[in-house]
Design brief:
Its cofactor is Zn(2+); Ca(2+). One of its GO terms (molecular function) is zinc ion binding. Keywords: Calcium, Hydrolase, Metal-binding, Metalloprotease, Protease, Signal, Zinc, Zymogen. By secondary structure, the protein is of the alpha/beta class. It folds into two domains: 64 residues, no CATH class; 143 residues, Collagenase (Catalytic Domain), CATH 3.40.390. Helices cover 29% and strands 14% of the residues. The chain is built from six helices and ten strands. The strands form three sheets. A six-stranded mixed beta sheet has the order 1-7-8-6-4-5, covered by helices on one side. Helix 4 crosses helix 5. The N and C termini lie far apart (51 Å).
């Protein structure tokens, strides 16, 4: 049955339930007793920003389209935290006709100009079948950037690490819908890229699983300093569907060149 527009009481209740951790901020706890009316206003503002990010009518109403997007599987890297919209593009115009849609992390963290060769390792919890797709994703980024990548053994030090984990872990990223956050990665020089081991993954496109290489391409973008893109065609768009396969988009390439002044 389709969701309807809610009456005022139900609307306010749902706002508090859905949006307390919107944008993957820290979840509220029973000790959070100092909320004020201003907190509610901030949550409404966050909802409006969320709707604008995903090209929905910024109505501040939790309608069908908003609910559908809120529960769509996505990357666990947050877009809106404490009222700051990290999905806001910080790039420049590509040319007179084309506008950038990519974004970077706060402060534009990136690898130093002297660090163009990055090593990566797979943790012992990575299934064997996942290794080739991730390696393929690194190769695709290498062919489109000034970076080179090389795999080292699990017991060696590396710039980047790939692992599979269950439940809450890693960088303290908490999703309002934990089961829908399928992977996350840290900004430079953090180097951590984790898949959610509770989800189903596939090497080839499958209608009931997430595509390993596509998600790896996205998370490696975060490892290099990307935030999320506003356009669905970009690899750095934040949501994923079962069976969805993507490659690097012109917006992704323009963004990495802008970040590293290449």
């Amino acid at each position: 049955m389709a969701f309807k527009i809610f009456n005022p009481i139900s609307f306010i209740f749902l706002i508090f339930i859905l949006l307390a951790p919107i944008g993957h901020a820290k979840r509220s706890t029973p000790s959070d007793k100092n909320s004020s009316p201003f907190d509610f206003i901030k949550k409404l503002k966050a909802l409006k920003t969320y709707q604008e990010n995903y090209h929905m009518k910024p109505s501040c109403v939790v309608d069908d389209a908003t609910i559908s997007k809120l529960i769509t599987p996505r990357c666990g890297v947050p877009d809106i935290v404490n009222g700051i919209n990290y999905m806001q593009p910080r790039g420049k115009k590509h040319n007179i006709h084309t506008v950038s849609h990519y974004s970077f992390f706060k402060g534009n963290p990136k690898w130093p100009s002297t660090k163009t060769h990055l090593t990566y390792r797979f943790l012992s919890n990575v299934p064997t079948y996942a290794i080739a797709p991730v390696a393929g994703a690194f190769q695709k980024w290498e062919s489109s950037t000034h970076f080179t990548f090389a795999r080292v053994q699990t017991n060696q030090n590396s710039d980047l690490e790939i692992g599979f984990f269950r439940g809450d872990h890693g960088d303290g990223i908490q999703n309002a819908f934990d089961e829908k956050s399928i992977a996350h990665a840290s900004a430079p020089p953090g180097g951590r890229f984790h898949y959610d081991a509770d989800d189903k993954w596939s090497v080839e496109p499958a209608a009931d699983a997430f595509h390993l290489e596509t998600v790896a391409l996205h998370e490696i973008g975060h490892l290099l300093g990307f935030g999320h893109s506003l356009i669905n065609a970009a690899i750095m768009y934040s949501t994923f569907s079962h069976g969805e396969v993507k490659i690097l988009n012109a917006d992704d390439i323009a963004g990495i060149r802008a970040l590293y002044n290449r």
